[in-house]
Design brief:
- The protein has about 375 residues and is of the alpha/beta class.
- The protein has 2 domains: about 130 residues, Four Helix Bundle (Hemerythrin (Met), subunit A) (Up-down Bundle), CATH 1.20.120; about 210 residues, Translation initiation factor eif-2b, domain 2 (Rossmann fold, 3-Layer(aba) Sandwich).
- About 40% of the residues lie in helices and about 20% in strands.
- The chain contains 11 helices and 18 strands.
- The strands form 5 sheets. Strands 8-7-6-9-12-17-18 form a 7-stranded mixed beta sheet, with helices on both faces. A 4-stranded mixed beta sheet has the order 13-10-11-16, covered by helices on one side. It has a 3-stranded antiparallel beta sheet with strand order 3-4-5.
- Helix 2 packs antiparallel against helix 5 and helix 4 packs antiparallel against helix 5.
- Bound molecules: 5-S-methyl-1-O-phosphono-5-thio-D-ribulose.
- The site of 5-S-methyl-1-O-phosphono-5-thio-D-ribulose has 17 residues, from helix 2 and strand 11.
Amino acid sequence: MNVDGKHFRTVWVDKDEQPIVKIIDQTKLPFAFEIENLDSVESLVSAIKNMHVRGAGCIGVTAAYGMWLAANQSRGSYSQLESLASKILEARPTATNLSWAVKRQLDLVAKNKNENWITLTLNEANKISDEDARWCNEIGNHGKKILYDIAKNKNNTSPVNILTHCNAGWLAFADWGSATSPIYCAHREGLSVHVWVDETRPLNQGARLTSWELANEGVPHTIIPDNTGGHLMRSGMVDVVITGTDRTNSYGDVANKIGTYLKALAATDNGIPFYVALPSSTFDWDTAEGGGDIPIEQRDSDEVMNIEGLNSEGKISSIAVSLDSFNYANYAFDVTPSRLVSGLITERGICNASRDGIMGLFPEKINN
Ligand code: MRU
């Protein structure tokens, strides 16, 4: 997608400056656009932990390039490569894409130990990034049909109103995004759309990142406090909810940014379709039905106690929301049960959020 008219991927390498992984520092947006250089596994792990890069797909692509840094650092020792891989794996627990990408790289090296690991892992990371961008673009091509159908059935000229939560946009992937991709595809073709953007406390990925992306793409949108969606849905101001996911099991239970479950409940109560968009790299083929065994990251309570923004001197700064002496909890994700999900939008098409629906699109996983 474009930033001031220039195309960017969220993670990339510069051939002349190897071995360096380049990222867009998402903690500075929307106030400043800064590119950060990661030159070691340690700096890459810190960038993931501190959310300079975030979002399931983007974490996966970053981890894939992290394995290239690991190949550089391990100097031909497979046990050293494995130990650097486990550092990357521990960076954040919920998004499946991270372990998916690290495992893919480790398996590749294990099968080709006699080849040059640095070249192997760099090529594979580029492939994972390209795949992620292509899959997200396909999600858009399938998902835009939902928006066209809504527009056709609306008996007025108002735009299709989509509500989204957190940031499942291009910043959360290599390009395009998952939840935003249908919106970008339809909007580029001229369909009239408007997006309600949940601000998404505590870190405000909606207010800071999704709105910035939508503005760059010229998509009309409005930022709302997280607790507004229910009112908008009851008032007929939302036609469809589309979110992303950090991990979805093969039964269609969806782990996503905290607060997603409440939006799904409100959508169901109001008969509003609630779709979840994801590339196949976000499926967790192993966890049990119900999603009870999906690890839910708990982050530092400081993120809840404080809020970050631009101060009167134009600097990004943080102020306390309440008193230091109070108690805070910071669950970063929740699980929305499949019964509240109208459908999953994947690179292979749209399916029911059920084992049968998912296996219909991914039959090769039936005996997984
Ligand atoms: O904690 P984050 O910002 O990494 O959370 C991930 C998300 O942005 C959302 O949960 C998103 O909707 C799914 S990731 C594509």
